Input
Amino acid sequence: MHDRPSPSLVNCPAPELSRSPAAARIGRLAAASGLSLTHFEYRQHLRLPDHWAPADRPDLFGEAVWQGGRLVEPKYGPFRHDGVLGSFHPGHRAKWTAHELCHALVGHAWRPDASPLFLALGCRVAELLPVTLYYFLDEAGLRRCPAHASGGPLYGAFCPTCERAALCGPIEIDGRWYDRGRAFVEAELAAVARSRRTGRPSSHRWTTIDLQSDALAYVGAHRLRLMSPEYRRFAELFPAPGRDHATLDSIEARVLELLDDLCGGREAQPLKGDHWQWVAHDIGWRLLQVGSQCEPELGAALDGLVDALAAETTAQGIVAAVEGYRALHDDWIMPEPEAVFALGLPLPDDVDLGRAIDQPAAGLAEGLPGTVELLGEAFVPVVEAFVTAESPTRGPIARRFARFLAAEAPGPVADLALYEAAIAHPEPPDPAAEAFGALAPALDDRVRRAPGVELLAPAVDVRDLTARLKDDPDAVPEDLDDLPPKPHRLAVRRTAGGDIIVAELSPAAAAALDRLADGPLPAAALALSADERLSLQTLGLTIPAGWSERG
Output
């Protein structure tokens, strides 16, 4: 059974909101505002109506699709500045939790007579503080790994060690990041002011960041939607006090209010709303989007559901909206309730909807084909149990599902899932070791386990099982308990060129690699023969603790 959700911060991992003082303040404001995030992989992203799509601009739109076991998010598709519920995407960094909640706290600028210029400038200001938080304010007091300490944001680079270090809590604040953040905000607002005076967007670039370019692309993608009768109706029925801004001055003032708070100044005001109110807003918009594509009689019936929901933005109002939609679905050809109400978070206890199942199942089928084959008819029920039980976790869905199986149902299926996940999503290799080669001269006699090496302990021969499933599925016994036992250890690693190395380890080699998990050791302390030490080194499973300048 799934517990009733807390009234706020659903899908917001608590450690990610204590990584820096700024992130912690965002978390407190978000909790006081009743905010939550939706789970990107468990949210059914409704296809945008064709009449809202910009002509001849397919680059601005697209649907979320699974690629390499990851659900890829089109930049200007699912994200909406006007959406109160942000997104938890397992493939993103931990910085995104505070960033998404910051978007909700800032809000967006819109009015019925908005021009494209107004929408673009409002979008630019709405993006300003979340970006400032991501690149500046969150770095003040952020704990990073020794290699990147005090170096600031990594931009396109990803460091798993930094991600783990940040979850240990903040260090002493370096106020320079607050100063740099304020300077960035001031420069952006000055560019917005020039744009308002001249009537033309004025650029301000900082390294790779260009908020003007992003705002123009966003408006190009969403202008028709924001100017539609359905959106005007949504804005009238579902106001969000404190985050719906009818003037650019108002949203700029909100940005400065929150900026002062995040830099340690006067506390900002939370939004006036609660969890179910924001969920009702999300459902209201989804119903209006469905209604925009319906014939008049059905559209009028959906309007009635929307009116009733707007009048009661509570758990009870949500239950009534679901029941009303299901009744209409019995009589009309329209999107399935399981899709429309798959918001990516749990709905009230009386509603057995809220999370998509087919979407994560498709991703798992791509990443864990053998596991899916073994589960057979049990696959979809097991996926549903996984989706319902999982707390928001970063990482590929194949790895998360494999860990779920290992915890809930250890055995051959879980062993195969862990193996397939390791093959599909290996950790990155050590760039220095790959560049220097396996036998580069060492600084001393100490060795360490190479970064990116993963150790598995299957109880059956998972490599043989994989081959059977691929070449002759009938050779796999119906009762998996009939598989011959073979407890053993495997090491998996990826090379810089993308090749996957899988090595079966002797008990002594496995024990040595286990010991090296805690840090470098003298080679002699591993109790291995010279040949076995050389084998581990040649396979790239161990590397020197440091390299020598001399050959």
Observations:
- Confidence is low (pLDDT under 50) at residues 1-6.
- The chain has 21 helices and 14 strands.
- The longest strand covers residues 489-494.
